[in-house]
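agent> Task received from the user: take the single chain below, predict its 3D structure, and emit structure tokens. No templates, no multimer pairing.
agent> Plan: (1) validate residues, (2) run structure prediction, (3) serialize to tokens, (4) report one or two observations.
agent> Step 1 OK, no nonstandard residues flagged.
tool_call: predict_structure(input=
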Amino acid sequence: MACHTRSLSLPNRTHSFVLKAEEELNKLRACVAYPSLSYEIILDAVKAVGHVYECMNDLLCISSNQISLSHLQQRRQIDEELEESIKLLDICSISRDNLDIFKSHIQDLELAIRRGESKSMKSTARDYTILVKKANKDLRKQIAKKSESADKDSSTVFSLLFETRQITISLLQSIFSYLSQQIVSEKSSNWSLVSRLMERRRIVCEGEFDIACLRVNVEALENGLENLFRNLIQCRVSLLNLSSL
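)
tool_result: status=success, residues=245
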């Protein structure tokens, strides 16, 4: 969705923050347009979203901007954004916790591979897949509660916040879509990677390396969401300060 900058809605000295946020959002719009994203693109996008929220926080903290946004015309938008920020914090927190659980199961799978315990490998892979599917389902339920489209009369700050929130939710979906395809083939009920791991030692070594890489990827995504979570909290604090003016 396009988000147009309105020069009259913000003081001139805030334009650099708006331009920086728009630059990051332009990259993110291109990312979320694809149905399936690679790990590298997802991780870069999570970092970019964090940068956008940093810009939003800077905008909200500028005293002259606070005065313009604290007018009665903006009060409703501030209240709505505060409500939506709580929902997004909950979604981000749950997603981050799920990644920690996934990481634990991947570590169990690594241990089973090293020990050559085929039964444990299958069981752990199955548990991992069930958890990812449940996380996907829970995330979809949360997303079903998303807000309506941004008001056409919204100020630049709230238009940017709205679009960034929608992109953030799309990225969280992409994270779980990516993770769901790493151990189990999307088109098959067979544990494709696990089956290959049991064929011969060379493939076991390759598979062990693949699982280790997946664990490292999950850790990086977890750290990315942790940083995003902190940015979201800072942005919410700025909104609360704004609402008290």
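agent> Step 4: summary for the user.
Residues 12-243 form one domain.
agent> Done.
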